[in-house]
Design brief:
Largest sheet: 12 strands, mixed
Structural class: alpha/beta
CATH superfamily of the largest domain: Lipoprotein localisation LolA/LolB/LppX
Number of helices: 9
Strand order of the largest sheet: 12-13-14-15-16-6-7-8-9-10-11-17
Radius of gyration: 26 Å
Distance between the termini: 53 Å
Length: about 375
């Protein structure tokens, strides 16, 4: 028996019921976990939840059928028959069990599946790596959203709506903190592309306080804004520079970028008018589909401009926070990419006293910022 359900307590209960009935059971929280384990070519029965994070039950079943790898399947779901009954019936399952259901219904359905493959002797078998890769390739081809295969003209209204709602929600947060994992590409003169990483965190208290820290392969930096001054500190070399700053976070981010050539991590997302900034040079955009980032179900959007393409993954639900942001720079040889994955958001942080004050460590040396020559604004 192969059991796939993302509800931990229900998954354990169902697995226990089947084992007590004499079946060998392997349970998985997602289709991706089952694929990593390996899907047997036969001799197994699949108990499959419909509404799963990432790859859904219906999409997975369709892929098995298309790849001639079908297994007798018992769908389980909390969705209404009116919503999923027709597409489920089209896949000819052994049974569809609507939650809540009793163990007798489950065991009776398994008995019917047993008429096909002998359910009482079902076991999992390891697959060779090549077969697993082939199955994954077939799966990708079958479930990739149609939107990802074509390039629609203009900006889809739904993509615009989702992005606007996300940026408005973030702008409305008076205080928050976020941890991120960042990667950036560097293209050598030979054309070879190298990737470097960093971990970062940002703490924001609107309208005029921010602290951001980055530490990684190429950078070790602290950015502190207290409403009156901006400080950039390099802990490793113990250098810091402080300069008077405008009275709001938005104005300070602009000042840092245009006058000092200093970019706050993920700074564009922190503006009160982030939506307008992001959409400014966009020529097209669309909703790619659903995705999972760091275990969070998201809407995946893709946008295109003359010089930059970018994608953003927005958390589903009442808190549509950005969870991932990928920027591809097309006007530079090799099209380097910059990626930010938001690993943890806190919308009600308790900031310690002095969080936004900078006090140099012992032995730290003060230096001056070098103004950007000509005051030329750095492109976003």
């Amino acid at each position: 028996m192969l059991l796939v359900d993302d509800d931990d307590s229900l998954r354990r209960a169902l697995a226990r019921t089947m084992r007590l009935a004499g079946f060998e059971v392997e349970a998985f929280e997602s289709v991706e976990a089952l694929l990593a384990r390996g899907v047997p070519e036969g001799g197994a029965c699949l108990v499959l939840d419909v509404d799963l994070p990432g790859i859904g039950g219906i999409e997975f079943k369709r892929t098995l059928v298309a790849a001639s790898r079908d297994l007798p399947t018992i769908f389980i779901t909390a969705l209404e028959p009116a919503d999923v009954g027709e597409p489920l019936a089209a896949l000819a399952p052994v049974a569809v069990l609507y939650k809540p259901f009793n163990k007798e219904a489950l065991l009776e359905a398994i008995g019917r599946a047993g008429n096909w493959h002998g359910a009482h002797s079902m076991t999992l078998r390891h697959k060779r790596t090549t077969r697993l890769l082939a199955a994954l390739a077939l799966f990708s081809a079958a479930v990739l959203p149609q939107a990802a295969l074509t390039q629609p003209a203009g900006i889809e209204p739904q993509a615009e709506k989702l992005l606007k709602a996300s940026m408005a929600f973030l702008a409305a947060q008076k205080r928050f903190s976020v941890d991120t994992r960042n990667t950036i590409d560097v293209v050598l003169t030979s054309g070879q592309k190298l990737q470097f990483g960093a971990a970062a965190s940002a703490s924001v208290q609107r309208p005029n306080k921010m602290r951001a820290e980055r530490k990684g392969d190429l950078v070790d930096q602290v950015f502190v804004y207290d409403g009156k001054s901006l400080t950039l500190y390099n802990p490793g070399q113990k250098y810091y520079a402080t300069v008077g700053a405008p009275g709001t976070l938005d104005a300070t981010l602009d000042f840092a970028r245009t006058k000092l050539d200093v970019i706050a991590p993920g700074g564009d997302l922190l503006y009160a008018n982030a939506y307008e900034i992001l959409i400014e040079n966009v020529t097209s955009g669309f909703v790619v589909g659903k995705a999972v980032v760091e275990g969070v179900r998201c809407d995946h959007l893709a946008f295109r401009g003359a010089e930059v393409d970018w994608q953003i993954w927005l958390q589903e639900g009442k808190q549509p926070l950005p969870r991932k942001w990928l920027i591809t720079t097309k006007d530079i040889a090799g099209s380097p990419e910059f990626e930010v994955v938001m690993t943890k958001w806190n919308l009600a942080p308790n900031f310690a006293d002095g969080m936004f004050d900078f006090k140099p460590s012992k032995g730290a040396r003060k230096v001056d910022f070098l103004p950007l020559i000509g005051g030329t604004a750095k492109p976003r």
